[in-house]
Design a protein that fits this description.
eight-stranded parallel barrel; binds ligand TNX; 18 helices; seven-stranded mixed beta sheet; alpha/beta
Length: about 525
């Protein structure tokens, strides 16, 4: 047995040399120092030990062993007994905080909770990628600034399989992202099975064809569709939870509703003539805010949604809702009169408030895009600021929780260079890595309002992202910049970030992730 355990607590003569090379971690930890003493040689058979009876840490250790096998060709063993690579909990640390030490006594990852240990192991993956199996003596003390570090994937404009979604979640985990915002309903497709309303997926999950190019006049003539069964949704939610990621589902209302209306035309003001959209944009077909049947539908859908997703926050969209059909609809106008609303903006606000009351009564909180501010927002709704940070700033100043996700810094569907001719078609705009990195989620906020900033989020809309290879290309490496803004917003230096990214890109390669090469020295 001992023979196979080739642990060399070596007085690495090279330790001095290692000490000269500081750890290159992304996101940047609070403190990382090489001590210049004895380090640790990892080898096949080295044991990772976890506290007795902690099944969560046991599973985390097994995940880590799998990464090591894939990324470093190293076959570690997991045991409850003593091992040189120890995972442990330390209640004096914050919930997501960790301490990682390498020294002559071995390697210790201590976390405030299992999540902290998990983040420590993400750092360790990067250290092994940087130094190889001969780790120098070092000490890392780390903790994130923001509690919400999110990334959204739009699975409506283009559909991604469960395996692809899981790989997406793996990528988030590597970056210590802890929220996966899953965009599940939109004009071009309804992607989540709702048992009470089977037409949503029988009809709403499929479009007749898809527009070509940048909303040209030509279409591909190919039916396109897909959806996630509730069983698959549960599988994804569990997979994310094992990576300490909460899945925040988005069910869009009252706009971006074409696929739902095509499935159940009585949900719209006109009551007929709807289709799952085949081009991109904003459409006038929205949920009728006058009829109570719309709200009954929403509540029954949300009833199934909250049973699937343990997330405290449920995203209800709220963005880009044209009001023409409400202006023409007698039911909507009656609602405006009876509720004493001033106009259609207040009708949208009525819609969102009513849904928020339902969510709150069921133990959840509402989050929506910054349009939920129009016509008045409740004091408790969380606002995701996408049209710049202005909405977020306004909301934070009045005390609402805020997630910053402005197009200016967080829209990873935009081009990443201005050399558009040599890039795959993208939404437009140019958002290079350096610009993503500049986001300051606190800008414009005094210290009181800053406390309302829950965090930041990267958004990957997929109108022009037809497959998962391109999704990765758009996501990486820009996600790393968002991750660092969310983890370490106050200590940032772009040149140093790029230096550290040169190491992380190697790990992307080892994991088989595709990434855009532009920012790197080739
Ligand atoms: C705006 S961001 C949208 C999406 C589009 C995106 C394209 C938001 C709340 N709405 O529907 O896909 O722009 O960048």
């Amino acid at each position: 047995m001992k023979k196979t355990i080739l642990l060399l607590l070596a007085a690495l003569s090279a330790a001095g040399a290692f000490a000269a090379v500081p750890p290159a971690l992304v996101p940047q930890p609070r403190l990382a120092v090489c001590d210049g003493d004895e380090g640790l040689q990892l080898a096949d058979g080295v044991r990772i030990s976890v506290p007795a009876n902690n099944v969560v840490l046991f599973r985390v250790a097994e995940q880590f062993a799998q990464w090591m096998e894939r990324e470093a060709g190293l076959r570690l063993a997991v045991a409850e007994s003593d091992g040189p690579l120890r995972l442990t909990l330390d209640e004096s640390l914050g919930a997501e905080a960790y301490r990682l030490t390498v020294g002559p006594d071995g390697l210790l990852v201590a976390g405030g909770t299992e999540a902290g240990v998990f983040y420590g192991l993400q750092s360790l993956r990067q250290l092994v990628s940087q130094y190889g199996t001969a780790l120098p003596a070092l000490r890392i003390e780390d903790e994130p600034t923001f509690a919400y570090r999110g990334t959204m994937l739009d699975c409506c404009r283009h559909f991604f399989t469960v395996d692809e979604v899981k790989t997406f979640i793996d990528i988030l985990a590597l970056h210590k992202i802890n929220r996966f915002h899953w965009h599940l309903t939109d004009d071009q497709g309804w992607r989540i099975e709702i048992l009470r309303y089977p037409e949503l997926t029988r009809v709403g999950a499929h479009r007749a064809e898809t527009v070509l190019g940048n909303n040209s006049a030509a279409y591909d003539g190919k039916p396109y569709g897909g959806y996630y069964t509730q069983r698959q949704v549960r599988d994804v939610v569990a997979y994310a939870a094992e990576r300490f990621i909460t899945v925040v589902p988005e069910i869009e209302m009252p706009g971006h509703a074409s696929a739902a209306l095509a499935s159940y035309p009585w949900l719209g003001c006109a009551g007929e003539g709807y289709k799952v959209q085949t081009l991109w944009g904003v459409f006038p077909e929205v949920f009728c805010a006058g009829r109570d049947t719309t709200f009954e539908f929403m509540e029954e859908v949300l009833d199934e949604v909250i049973a699937l997703f343990p997330s405290e926050y449920i995203h209800v969209g709220g963005d880009e809702c044209p009001k023409e059909s409400w202006k023409r609809c007698p039911e909507c106008q009656r609602r405006i009169r009876e509720e004493g609303l001033r106009d259609e903006n207040e009708l949208q606000s009525y819609f969102i408030h009513r849904i928020e009351r339902w969510l709150n009564a069921h133990g959840r909180r509402l989050i929506g895009w910054d349009e939920i501010l129009d016509g008045g927002v409740s004091p408790t709704a969380a606002v995701m600021s996408w049209r710049g940070t202005e909405g977020g700033i306004r909301a934070a100043r009045q005390g609402n929780p805020v997630v910053m996700a402005p197009t200016t810094h967080c829209y990873l569907d935009y081009y990443q260079t201005d050399d558009v001719a040599n890039e795959p078609l993208a939404w437009g705009g140019c958002l290079p890595l350096s610009k993503v990195y500049e986001l300051d989620p606190y800008e414009g906020l005094d210290s009181l309002a800053q406390r309302c900033v829950l965090g930041v989020q990267a958004n990957l809309w997929t109108e022009y992202i037809p497959d998962f290879a391109q999704a990765q290309y758009m996501l990486l490496p820009r996600l790393a910049a968002v991750a660092e803004v969310g983890w370490a917003p106050r200590r940032r230096n772009y040149d140093d970030f790029l230096r550290r990214m040169e190491h992380l890109r190697l790990l992307y390669g080892a994991c088989g992730y595709r990434y855009a090469p532009h920012p790197f020295a080739h």
